[in-house]
From TrEMBL:
<dbReference type="InterPro" id="IPR004159">
    <property type="entry name" value="Put_SAM_MeTrfase"/>
</dbReference>
<keyword id="KW-0175">Coiled coil</keyword>
<feature type="transmembrane region" description="Helical">
    <location>
        <begin position="20"/>
        <end position="40"/>
    </location>
</feature>
<dbReference type="GO" id="GO:0008168">
    <property type="term" value="F:methyltransferase activity"/>
</dbReference>
<dbReference type="InterPro" id="IPR053223">
    <property type="entry name" value="Prob_Methyltransferase"/>
</dbReference>
<dbReference type="GO" id="GO:0032259">
    <property type="term" value="P:methylation"/>
</dbReference>
<keyword id="KW-0808">Transferase</keyword>
<dbReference type="GO" id="GO:0016020">
    <property type="term" value="C:membrane"/>
</dbReference>
<keyword id="KW-0472">Membrane</keyword>
<protein>
    <submittedName>
        <fullName>Methyltransferase, putative</fullName>
    </submittedName>
</protein>
<keyword id="KW-1133">Transmembrane helix</keyword>
<keyword id="KW-0489">Methyltransferase</keyword>
<keyword id="KW-0325">Glycoprotein</keyword>
<dbReference type="Pfam" id="PF03141">
    <property type="entry name" value="Methyltransf_29"/>
</dbReference>
<dbReference type="InterPro" id="IPR029063">
    <property type="entry name" value="SAM-dependent_MTases_sf"/>
</dbReference>
<dbReference type="GO" id="GO:0012505">
    <property type="term" value="C:endomembrane system"/>
</dbReference>
<comment type="similarity">
    <text>Belongs to the methyltransferase superfamily.</text>
</comment>
């Protein structure tokens, strides 16, 4: 009786492990048969000229089918199954080696249950879900069409990303007022290179609060995963949020510290962002959180450099014609604030590079545009009266990237619109290259000033007018 009782845990666990191996083998057979059936259904085992032509060089058949992503997904499932099998075999070998210890050990049912859930069922469930998510291309047409697959669908595992990038067909009418049958949600092409980070970003509970992960979102955007997918979770705000100051106060007053979520920054209040603090956490736009200094910009001759133009002098070039514009740079919205006092509406681009630039612009009663260098400006052609750039587009930038950016600015500037290049600087030996970049559009020169920045660097400020180009 005593021997039978001591043998029970060891024999019972070994019997369970044996059954698990049998179940696992049956599962592998079922998955294999299922996969073969899906390939058969797709026509891979039927003589189909369209499919055959693809494998022998006709590239239009699988034009949109991501074979590499499908291969990666299958390989991932196989690795999971192989790892599970190795883990079970290792456990059985250890049990054989430690028979004497197992005879004296009483493993409880709770421990059995925990082992099965964590070490067996979870990997099996993960592999099962991954297999079910694999989408093979569908043959469209009457047996002679092309195989089509939704772009990137097999690239990601996280279900919320897959739901987002799957096209949404119209519910009632075939063609909507956009003139399309489906709506494609967009993500940046570099998202496939940052798959791990994007899947972390999209891993949340629908309808609950989002994680405080704005810095992860910005990392994705700067890395080229831009635009980011939308999320179905609730954005967090400061727990002690206060109503903003009225507009007659907010333009030239630092906002309330309680209106910013300071997680992800080195500082925990606006006072800490002073240029006097070497640990403030940002390097661009030094001093732009000090309103007394900001008040002097573009309105007072606080600098002896000829490259520092005043707003009144630039607006005098086109009196009454500058109404809306874009400030493309790094700052706290001071340029937009000064222009607002002159009844000109300016949108300020901003990234939170070590400090809450977007928040302070909005809390001052101005409009921040959360945008990176990677993306096309979200404005229609020939709509802006003014584009002003300072502190952002400098001699570090690649010439080809700068070319694309300048052409995009040219697109949104209206005929007669002004491009204000403010304190652009570069190495002297690169000046001719950058000057060509600005002058290639044949804009009219209203102002063009060079000034030394250091022994090897030089400043350039200019105000250029876009020609009509009536064609």
């Amino acid at each position: 009786m005593k021997m039978r009782r001591s043998c029970f845990p060891r024999c019972g666990f070994a019997r369970i492990m044996g059954w698990l191996r049998i179940v696992l083998g049956i599962l592998v057979i079922i998955v294999s048969i299922s996969s073969l059936f899906r390939f058969y259904s797709a026509g891979f085992f039927v003589h189909n000229e369209d499919i055959c032509r693809h494998f022998y060089g006709i590239k239009d058949v699988y034009e949109r089918f991501d074979v590499r992503a499908l291969n990666d997904r299958v390989a991932e499932v196989l690795r999971t199954m192989e790892s599970l099998q190795e883990k079970l075999e290792t456990t059985l070998q250890q049990m054989e080696k430690n028979k004497d210890v197992l005879d004296q050990t009483n493993m409880t049912r709770l421990e059995h249950k925990k082992y099965l859930e964590v070490e067996v069922l979870r990997p099996l469930y993960s592999a099962h879900i991954a297999l079910r998510q694999i989408r093979l291309p569908k043959i469209e047409g009457n047996g002679n069409g092309t195989l089509k697959e939704e772009p990137l669908i097999n690239t990601f595992i996280t279900e919320e990303i897959r739901k987002y990038i799957t096209p949404k067909e119209n519910r009632i009418v075939k063609v909507n007022f956009y003139g399309t049958e489906k709506i494609y949600n967009t993500i940046g092409h570099a998202c496939v290179l940052m798959k791990k980070e994007l899947q972390e970003y999209m891993d949340y509970d629908i309808g609950s609060y989002c994680k405080d992960d704005w810095n992860l979102a910005q990392k994705l955007m700067v890395g080229g995963c831009d635009p980011l997918p939308r999320r179905r979770c609730l954005t967090r705000a400061s727990k002690v949020y206060q109503k903003p100051y009225p507009i007659n106060e907010s333009l030239w007053k630092l906002p309330d510290d309680r209106n910013v979520r300071w997680g992800g920054y080195k500082c925990r209040n606006f006072g800490c962002l002073s240029s006097k603090n070497p640990k403030r956490g940002y390097t661009k736009c030094t001093g732009c959180f000090e309103m007394e200094k900001e008040k002097l910009k573009w309105v007072a001759n606080s600098s002896s450099l000829a490259v520092d133009f005043l707003i009144r002098d630039v607006l005098a070039i086109k009196p009454g014609q500058v109404r809306i514009g874009l400030d493309y740079g790094v700052g706290t919205g001071t340029f937009a604030a000064r222009m607002r006092e002159l009844n000109v509406t300016i949108i300020s681009t901003a990234l939170n590079l070590g400090a809450p630039f977007n928040e302070i612009i909005a809390l001052r009663g101005l409009i921040p545009l959360y945008a990176t260098l990677n993306q096309r400006l979200p404005f229609f052609d020939n709509t802006m009266d003014l584009i002003h750039t300072t502190g952002f587009l400098d001699g570090w930038i690649d010439l080809l990237l700068m070319d694309f950016i300048l052409y995009d600015w040219d697109r949104v500037l209206r005929p007669g619109g002004l491009l204000w290049i403010d304190r652009f600087f570069c190495n002297k030996k690169d000046l001719d290259d950058y000057m060509y970049m600005f002058l290639q559009f044949r804009y009219k020169k209203h102002k063009w000033v060079l000034a030394p920045k250091s022994k090897d660097e030089v400043y350039l400020s200019a105000v250029l007018e876009k020609p009509p180009r009536a064609i």
